[in-house]
Amino acid sequence: MLKTLRDITQAVAAADDLQSALSLLVTQTKSAMATQCCSIYILEEQQLVLSATDGLDPSAVGHVKMPLTQGLVGLVAEREEPINLADAPLHPRFKLFTEVAEEDFRAFLAVPIIYQKLILGVLVVQQADERQFSEAEEAFLMTLAAQLAVAVREQRKKAEVKSSPDQCYYSGTSAANGVVIAHAMVIGGDISLEQEDYFATDIEEELIQLKYALDACRNTLSALSQRFDGENEKEVQSIFSALLLLLDDTSLGGEYVREIKLGWSAVSAVSRVSLRYIDQFLQMQDPYLQERATDIRDLGQRVLRELIEPQKMHIEFDAPVILVTKEATATMLAEFPQHKLVGIVTELGGVNSHAAILARAFGVPAVIGVEGILNAGIDGKQIILNASRGQVLVSPTPTLIKEYRSHISAEKALQKRYSKELSLAAQTLDGKRIHLYLNAGLLSSLASEVAEGADGIGLYRTEIPFMLQTRFPSEAEQVEIYRQVIQAAANKPVVMRTLDVGGDKPLSYLPIIEDNPFLGWRGIRLTLDHPELFLVQLRAMLNAAGDSEQLHILLPMVSCLDEIDQAIAYLEQAYLEVKQDIHPQLVRPKIGIMLEVPALLFQLEEVSQRVDFISVGSNDLTQYLLAVDRNNPRVSTLYDCYHPGILRALKRARVECQQYQLSISVCGELAGEPIGVILLVAMGFDQLSMNQGSLAKINYLIRRVSYADLNELLEMALSLSSGGEVRRLVTQYLRNNELEEFL
Length: 743
Hints:
Layout: H1 2-14, H2 18-33, E1 37-44, E2 47-54, E3 65-67, H3 71-79, E4 83-85, E5 107-115, E6 118-127, H4 135-163, E7 168-171, E8 173-176, E9 179-187, H5 203-230, H6 234-246, H7 252-261, H8 266-282, H9 287-312, E10 321-325, H10 330-335, E11 341-346, H11 354-362, E12 366-368, E13 382-386, E14 391-394, H12 398-419, E15 435-440, H13 446-451, E16 457-461, H14 463-467, H15 475-488, E17 494-497, H16 524-529, H17 531-545, E18 551-555, H18 561-581, E19 590-595, H19 604-608, E20 613-616, H20 618-626, H21 644-659, E21 663-666, H22 674-683, E22 687-690, H23 692-702, H24 707-718, H25 723-736
Parallel strand pairs: 9-10, 10-11, 11-12, 15-16, 15-22, 16-17, 17-18, 18-19, 19-20, 20-21
Antiparallel strand pairs: 1-2, 1-6, 2-3, 4-5, 5-6, 7-14, 8-12, 9-13, 13-14
Helix pairs in contact: 1-2, 1-4, 2-4, 5-6, 5-7, 5-9, 7-8, 8-9, 15-17, 17-18, 22-24, 24-25
């Protein structure tokens, strides 16, 4: 069953166009269910349109339409549930369409195709005999419809792009504000097997490229095979095992090599071999052997992706581009040529994933959750990315481009106005001083950013240099990086977070495969398990700081007091080693923890006896309090840092830290958002750390609000029942105070 479902879904997803996809769907489903008729109706403008059939009159395709209130098909869509009838004409909602020639069919089974609560269409199978389709048949069709929903949605979106070559509009969720106009560079979309034939200029080089591609495929397939083997999904595991065997020198892997030795490039060789064998297997009479063509196609596309797309990241582009990909990892963004990356569009990912955070750190506009854009054929096309509104416009008209260029100029003028006050202290109208710090991860322009108004570096993400390496950086390399950071801060405080990888921040040279990575081996958990790495990093930080009092060390993902005690013991060991061997006048740094795990909210008194400060990671704290994966677009609407429960937790933390004389700041994304800053300042937070792009704007805002007024606003916000109500309340406050520009 799994194999059949996979084959049908992959065939639909890989089809060249929507009509071909739907035709493949009905033909293969009819065959799989051994029935006499299969049809699919697609919802268009509140009408169900017969879009493909194998068993009804093909001339009726595109012509038979019915509203949701008519017929059995309409009833399935209306109720959003399957209907299974032994004799369909006896049902009161049965409606006969003579043009489709379905008079001979009695048995009727139909299921809705639903994508994220929206009806896309209805899948129907019919048979002449009066009989009830079995529970197994009904379950198969329902499972197939659920798997097909994404493929059908993407094919429809692809069809919309092709039918509207002049301009096409997509929407998603803003992850990093800004507006930019550039050409798209798609990474991770469909790879066509039909590549152009090119002769190799250097056969040995082509063989080396093929070897790297095959090794990468083997690693991926092995990991997948092991994962499903561990989950006892033997049927799925066997699929990846079969693909691994095809990579052998005695199978397709050897054929690829032989084709290169005949003089073809690696890409051309894989394409030629794959197409040749697919054609041969499709000509065979044995159905099982015919199905092997799908495996050859799957493998060929995997190898071609490894050959084609890794090179895309390293070529020199003629002009800056907007990266369009399935999911932008933090590693991918760190490796991308920064001067060439002006925007990011993804199908997956969360607003507060670390990739999104990194995009904001780079000042690069980003939109996530854009359905169907990856395989819509937009590679190389000009697009307008209005990340502030979550909009992507493909092939915009000259008039629209002109309008957006004017908008971009206006935004730059606004930012220039904010920047004029950046050298002035961030202080409310009634004298409340707020210290603004910088979140950083890259060395470029760091000195000028700190000098332009930041009170110091509130969060230096040491994992970024680790991501830029192909191995763990040595102690000497880390010392050099940290010394540059401390020097760039010009005698201002520098909070360095120890290595925080895992979750959505993997290291390519330390792969971590877990079922629940955000609840797994990450942050301080990983480094305490690897004291050799932890001690090297601590010594490097201390060595870089020397006799300076600037250094503060921050521990990420702390979940219990024992972890703090262990980390302090290692810090003491590193301190004594550096003091004895390198810096006799070494200053003992302040140490703090990230408040991300909710359990520590109830142990702040004990925490205060161990550390000097707390930095609230609002992104992870929100994720764990709400039990919402911040990278999962399916539940992204539930992730809300303005949820009254989150706000009450933050206020509790601030009040208790004051009680226990424990310094507290916020370094999560909330500290860089105007609405978030209003609420945090109202709670009494006077240390906020944010990305450089938010610094001038937040400084400007703070200088135009009254702390006394904010106290009353906070009490109202905490009494509300949802994050939406909180946003509306603060939005109205900003409007009443003529601060709409911050919305």
